[in-house]
Inverse folding.
């Protein structure tokens, strides 16, 4: 089997109805291919027309009907109507793996022209293809689009790569808000523990965030280097010693009485913790860097190694809306999952301070800083597609 690139486009209706998390959960848990890129689009009519012309039509009536339905659907739902307040947002996900195109079509996404209620595939659950007694399509909502055949992949992906700068990126002006609201953007980063094997975790987290009503306007797969991670978590490094001190005091109180043959006062434990907290903070910080990059920072030598992409993967998303920063952090919960409120993401899914599922920016200043560190403006999707087909 040869390695392939495959794409999934999550439709605007699916995104607007806050089904994005459910779709991503299904994709990541059922597809063995690796998620290698993500990008948001507001497709132009020009892109849609060229894309639809690449869809092959077999000789049968059903095939022609499906292509017509796809063409009509995209013109009505992917392209901005004149005078519309919001521009349709499409999320493009790029997968890489052996036989991944066929896997997505048959086992994960499902057929576009079958109406199933069993919920096994993405379209079973989130899509509809309903016909009347005369065989006419009365309702068509495919939830997502995919590349159905290997023969179509190269031309289709190269087309989207060509338009990915003009029609894609961070969609700051895609959504309109009432005059009384003060929309802001914030960064959410799904951490590496979301992507250990075929897991629905990242999708489940996105699904919970959708309760805020905020809108996704940017998406990117990130492999943080040690240098990026150290800069990203620099403010955390400065705060860690004091944050960890109470826990260190408790550890000393449990450990020392069994070792020493004399008693220690509470003030002595506090003084010892003051002397050890910086060492504890450094250990914890290095643990965070290793978790985020897959690399032990103490073993890195040289600038090239420091700046090399890590082996771990994160999904960075930009959300926009009224009070976006505080609303995201509210649903995410406290950094320490043991202190997080019930029903928050970290209380449900996190295991520790360093492995707490997701990061969210805590201020507008840090949104800007973190987006710059992660290079959210870079078009990795285009780079990956062009490199793949140059091999």
């Amino acid at each position: 089997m040869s390695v392939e690139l495959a794409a999934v486009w999550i439709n605007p209706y699916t995104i607007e109805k806050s089904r994005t998390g459910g779709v991503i959960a299904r994709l990541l848990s059922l597809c063995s291919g690796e998620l290698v890129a993500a990008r948001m689009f507001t497709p132009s009519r020009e892109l849609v027309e060229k894309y639809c012309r690449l869809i092959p039509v077999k000789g049968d009536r059903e095939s022609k009907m499906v292509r017509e339905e796809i063409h009509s659907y995209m013109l009505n739902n992917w392209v901005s109507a004149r005078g519309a307040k919001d521009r349709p947002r499409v999320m493009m996900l790029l997968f890489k793996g052996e036989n991944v195109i066929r896997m997505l079509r048959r086992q994960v996404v499902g057929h576009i022209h079958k109406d199933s209620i069993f919920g096994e595939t993405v379209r079973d659950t989130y899509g509809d293809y309903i016909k009347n007694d005369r065989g006419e399509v009365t309702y068509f909502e495919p939830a997502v689009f995919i590349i159905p055949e290997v023969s179509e992949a190269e031309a289709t992906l190269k087309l989207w790569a060509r338009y990915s700068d003009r029609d894609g990126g961070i969609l700051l002006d895609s959504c309109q808000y009432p005059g009384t609201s003060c929309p802001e953007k914030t960064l959410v980063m799904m951490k590496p523990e979301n992507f250990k094997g075929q897991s629905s975790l990242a999708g489940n987290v996105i699904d919970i965030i959708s309760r805020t009503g905020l809108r996704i306007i940017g998406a990117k797969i990130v492999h943080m280097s040690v240098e990026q991670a150290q800069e990203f978590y620099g403010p955390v490094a400065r705060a860690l010693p004091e944050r960890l001190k109470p826990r260190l005091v408790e550890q000393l109180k449990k450990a020392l009485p069994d070792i020493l043959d004399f008693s220690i006062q509470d003030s002595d434990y506090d003084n010892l913790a003051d002397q050890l907290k910086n060492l504890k903070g450094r250990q914890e910080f290095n643990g965070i860097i290793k978790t985020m990059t897959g690399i032990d920072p103490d073993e890195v030598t040289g600038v090239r190694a420091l700046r090399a992409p890590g082996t771990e993967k994160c999904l960075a998303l930009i959300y926009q809306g009224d009070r976006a920063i505080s609303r995201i952090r509210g649903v995410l919960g406290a950094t320490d999952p043991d202190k997080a409120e019930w029903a928050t993401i970290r209380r449900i899914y996190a295991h520790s301070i360093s492995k707490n599922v997701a990061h969210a920016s805590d201020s507008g200043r840090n949104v800007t800083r973190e987006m710059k560190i992660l290079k959210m403006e870079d078009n990795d999707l285009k780079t990956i597609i062009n490199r793949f087909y140059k091999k």
